[in-house]
Specification:
Layout: H1 2-10, H2 16-28, H3 32-45, H4 50-62, H5 66-69
Helix pairs in contact: 2-3, 2-4, 3-4
């Protein structure tokens, strides 16, 4: 995990394509709290991104925020 965190720190996390690649990985690692800001940023930049919405809902479910997940 430390190597992964160092790699993440070296990336341009403002780039929407990098965010879109990293967020699902964070969800698979059960790190929804880390994925959530990326997913919100993706949807601000690409409001029609279906996968962004699916991943955002998954993040909210992992965080037991079910009402947010269905919005």
């Amino acid at each position: 995990v430390q190597v992964y965190d160092k790699y993440l720190a070296s990336l341009d996390m403002g780039d929407v394509e990098i965010q879109a690649a990293i967020a699902p990985v964070l969800l698979q690692l059960r790190r929804a709290e880390d994925a959530l800001p990326l997913l919100k940023s993706i949807l601000e930049k690409k409001p029609g991104d279906l996968f962004g919405y699916i991943n955002l809902a998954q993040a909210y479910v992992q965080l037991s925020q079910y009402e947010e997940a269905v919005k």
